[in-house]
Design goal:
EC 2.6.1.109; aminotransferase; Aspartate Aminotransferase, domain 2; seven-stranded mixed β-sheet; transferase; four-stranded antiparallel β-sheet; 40% helix; binds pyridoxal-5'-phosphate; pyridoxal phosphate; DegT/StrS_aminotransferase; 398 residues; 2 domains
Length: 398
C-alpha cells in the first residue's frame, strides 16, 4: 500500500497554559490598551518590550501591530522618503516589498544565490542605487553578515533586518536583528511566537528608538515605556514625528511573554524536526539540499530544497505527486502568485529587471513548513514520500 501522510501543515500548537492564564487576567481587568495601566502597574506590552530587549541584547524595543508595520516604521524612522529607492531581496514574501510601497518608496530587487541568501555581488553592484537595504532573512537563511555589513557600511547604506523567519537565529553568535540599524520581527501565527498578529522592533540607536515609539502612536505617553530612551531624546523629536498608529495591545503581549521565555526550547524542537527532514532528503538524484554555513545558528521552522534546472512542468508534477500523498510543498517558481508564494515580477506595482541567475534558482525552490505539531516520525515519513516522488519524476525525465 502507498504510504500517505495525514498530518496538517498549517496546524500550530495550542497557546501554552501560562499564556492563557495571563490573557485571562488581562481580559478580566479590561485594560487592553497598552497605555491603560492602573497606578503602579507596568503593563504587559511594556514588560514584553523590556524582556525582548534583554533577550536579544538590544538597548531598545518596541512592540507593534505586525511585522509589516515594524518594517514600515523602521523605514520611516531612518528617513525613507516618497520616491526613494530601497534595496531588498528578490526572494522574499509580499509584505516586504509591500512595506516599501507603504512608505511610497520603490523597491530595487537584489538577486538570490543557490544558498537562498541575498546575492552579495549583486548587492555590491547595486549599492550606489539606494541609501537603505531592507534585508529579508527569507526562510531563515542568513547570508554572510560580515561581508554584507562591510558592503553596506562602505556604501553608507542603512540596513533594516527583516527577521520574520530568524527570531532565535544568530550569525557567529550575534542574534539576528542586531547588526542592522533595526531588527524587525513578526509574531504572526506562522512565525516563531504566536499572537495571531503582532510585531517587534529592536535598535540600539536612541533617536531611532524614540522616533519609532512616536510613530507607533504613543501620543505623549512615552514615559510608560520600559525599553525606550529617556524623555530628553523624545524632546528632540516629538514635534516632528507623526503618529501612524500601530501599537501592540496588552492581550497579545500577555500571550507572547511566556512564549518568548520558551523560545530556545522551541528552536531546539524545530531543529530536531528540520534535521530529520534534511537527513531524509540527502542523496536524492536531482534534488539539492541547502547546506547551512557553520557561522549560522538557524531555526528550522521551514525547509527548502532545489530542483535545479528542472522544467516547470516536472517541478509541478513532483509537487502534485507529493500532494496526492498528503505532503504539501510550495513552489516559488510559478508564474501566478499562489497562497503565500510569489516572485519578484508578480509585484507589478514595482518595476524590476530580469535576473536570469536568480530566476534559475527561484524556478527550482521548493518550500515546506515544519510545524511543531509534526513528530520526528512524521518528518521521516514526509522525507520518504518526497524521495519516492522526486526520484520517480526525475527518473522519467532522463
Ligand atoms: C510574515 C512575514 C513578514 C511580515 O509579517 P506580518 O506580521 O505578517 O506583517 C515579513 N517578512 C517575511 C519574510 C514574512 O514571512
Amino acid at each position: 500500500m502507498t504510504e500517505r501522510f495525514t498530518g496538517s501543515f498549517t496546524q500550530q500548537e495550542p497557546i501554552p497554559d501560562e499564556a492563557i492564564e495571563a490573557a485571562l487576567a488581562v481580559l478580566r481587568h479590561g485594560r487592553l490598551h497598552r497605555y491603560n495601566v492602573a497606578d503602579g502597574e507596568l503593563g504587559e506590552t511594556a514588560l514584553l518590550e523590556q524582556e525582548f530587549a534583554a533577550q536579544t541584547g538590544a538597548k531598545y524595543c518596541l512592540a507593534v501591530a505586525s511585522g509589516g508595520y515594524a518594517m514600515a516604521t523602521a523605514m520611516r524612522a531612518v528617513g525613507v522618503q516618497p520616491g526613494d529607492a530601497v534595496l531588498t531581496n528578490a526572494f522574499t514574501l509580499a509584505p516586504v516589498p509591500g512595506a516599501i510601497a507603504s512608505v511610497n518608496a520603490r523597491p530595487v530587487f537584489v538577486g538570490v544565490t543557490e544558498e537562498l541568501t541575498i546575492d552579495l555581488d549583486d548587492l555590491a553592484a547595486k549599492a550606489d542605487q539606494a541609501k537603505v537595504l531592507l534585508l529579508s532573512h527569507m526562510r531563515g537563511h542568513l547570508c554572510d553578515m560580515d561581508r554584507l555589513m562591510e558592503i553596506c557600511d562602505n556604501a553608507g547604506i542603512t540596513v533594516i533586518e527583516d527577521c520574520a523567519h530568524t527570531m532565535g537565529a544568530a550569525w557567529r553568535g550575534v542574534p539576528s536583528g542586531r547588526q542592522g540599524a533595526f531588527g524587525c520581527y513578526s509574531c504572526q501565527t506562522y512565525k516563531h511566537v504566536n499572537s495571531g498578529e503582532g510585531g517587534l522592533l529592536i535598535t540600539d540607536d536612541e533617536e531611532l528608538a524614540a522616533k519609532a515609539v512616536m510613530l507607533s502612536g504613543s501620543y505623549m505617553l512615552y514615559e510608560r515605556h520600559l525599553a525606550a530612551p529617556g524623555p530628553d531624546v523624545f524632546e528632540r523629536i516629538k514635534y516632528h514625528t507623526p503618529n501612524v498608529s500601530g501599537r501592540m495591545d496588552n492581550l497579545r503581549a500577555s500571550i507572547l511573554r511566556p512564549q518568548l521565555k520558551d523560545l530556545d526550547r522551541q528552536v531546539a524542537r524545530w531543529n530536531e524536526r528540520y534535521q530529520a527532514l534534511e537527513a531524509g532528503l540527502r542523496d536524492i538524484p536531482g534534488l539539492t539540499v541547502i547546506e547551512r554555513p557553520a557561522e549560522e545558528s538557524y531555526v528550522g521552522s521551514s525547509i527548502q530544497f532545489l530542483l535545479l534546472d528542472w522544467t516547470p512542468r516536472a517541478v509541478q508534477e513532483a509537487i502534485a505527486r507529493c500532494a496526492a500523498r498528503g505532503v504539501e510543498l510550495k513552489w516559488f517558481g510559478a508564474d501566478e502568485p499562489a497562497g503565500f508564494t510569489s516572485r519578484y515580477d508578480s509585484w507589478r506595482y514595482a518595476q524590476s529587471e530580469r535576473m536570469p541567475a536568480s530566476d534559475r534558482v527561484l524556478t527550482g525552490i521548493v518550500d515546506m513548513r515544519v510545524p511543531l505539531t509534526f513528530s520526528l516520525d512524521d518528518c521521516v515519513v514526509i522525507a520518504r514520500i518526497i524521495r519516492a516522488e522526486v526520484s520517480a519524476v526525475h527518473q522519467s525525465q532522463l
